[in-house]
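User: I'm curious whether this sequence folds into something compact or stays loose and floppy. Could you predict its structure so I can see for myself?
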Amino acid sequence: MMNNHHAHSAPWWRSRTGLALLVFLVVAAFYLWSEHRAHLFGILPYLLALLACVLMLWLILAPSQRR
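Assistant: Here's the prediction. I'll summarize afterward.
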């Protein structure tokens, strides 16, 4: 006879440790967003330019690769 102990257990985030981990992650994410927002927005134009270059290369080279 096999005992299945995990069939009726609560999800991990409902445990005391899981709840503490979720609270810690939310606080850490808020801190990272609030403190580093200027750096993220400062690099955004360069990331958009890089994305535009990759997109143009993909659009130019994709038709030649379909043949």
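Summary: The chain has one helix and no strands. The first helix runs from residue 16 to 65.
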